[in-house]
């Protein structure tokens, strides 16, 4: 799960060409601009991730001019000096957790006797930091919460993934900037459902979720598939087009309303279907003739260089169109995670 604010260790600090007052610190796998000579390698700090919303309190006011709506990616420098990327914020622990007491650290983080080993401890709630969510219209067609134990869709960023993934075999797919969609069939109750990111929606109303379900006859197709294989599944995708997530760099928002499926949640086992699984998303969608997110690279050996490239490509080629893109999702046999494109995040 993505942490919005956590205790981390500075692992590197370097100067930035042409800038005398700032440096670039590496924290939790991210590089972030910090005041020069304020921090040192090995120091414990609070790292605030991109897409975090800062509270309206005096101590966070200095950052509001850079993060009015949310903490985001920034590019520092110019053509002659070169550019560096800054993602997130670094905060001094003593300043932002003033009640911290080394003798009573349980007040802050629950039972530890020193900072050592606290890397990754979530302090979002203590600081009043929340996750940025795009404003949603009033959900008059909502039926209730997500059914059948289906979780919200929210991939971890690759910097937050603790288990090893480099040198594993993975598929790389395009991350489309739209709105989440799930079509699910529950075999024991013979129930079909359509959902957004957090809610189930009524099927007898005219809205984007029902339009997609009708367009692809999902109720009948998914039911037939699930009965054939004696399994309950949730097809997960991204609805795009018709000005969904509209802004100038979002190529998909300018397209007609459609969907691209990217994963399958197995309701019976409570987990996603991975590359080698029977009901991996491309297998299911091939069988049901449904659209999927573009597969940018199939069964490649994952390297730092590949992930860094997708972070800093300005555009990607999709069916002959060079388009700005939100990022990628990487899936292996054991996990999945996202890589956010820095150019896209900076301009969003």
Structure, explained:
With 348 residues, the protein is an alpha+beta fold. The chain has helices at 93-96, 106-109, 124-127, 208-215, 218-229, 281-288, 304-312, 342-347, and strands at residues 5-15, 22-27, 30-35, 44-48, 52-53, 73-78, 82-87, 89-91, 121-122, 130-131, 142-145, 169-175, 179-186, 191-195, 199-201, 233-240, 258-266, 271-272, 295-301, 316-318, 321-323, 327-331, 336-340. It is globular, with a radius of gyration of 22 Å. It is 16% helix and 34% strand. A seven-stranded antiparallel sheet has the order 11-15-14-13-16-17-18, with helices on one face. Strands 1, 2, 3, 4, 8 and 9 form a six-stranded antiparallel sheet that branches. The chain has a four-stranded antiparallel sheet with strand order 19-12-22-23.
The separation of the N and C termini measures: 23 Å
Q: Helical percent range?
A: 10-25%
Largest sheet, described in full?
7 strands, antiparallel
Spatial order of the strands forming the largest sheet: 11-15-14-13-16-17-18
Structure class: alpha+beta
Please work out how many helical segments DSSP would assign.
8
Approximate shape: globular
- Give the uncertain stretches in residue-range form: 102-113
- Percentage of residues in strands: 25-35%
Rg from Cα: 22 Å
Give the overall pLDDT as a whole number.
88
Q: Count the beta strands.
A: 23
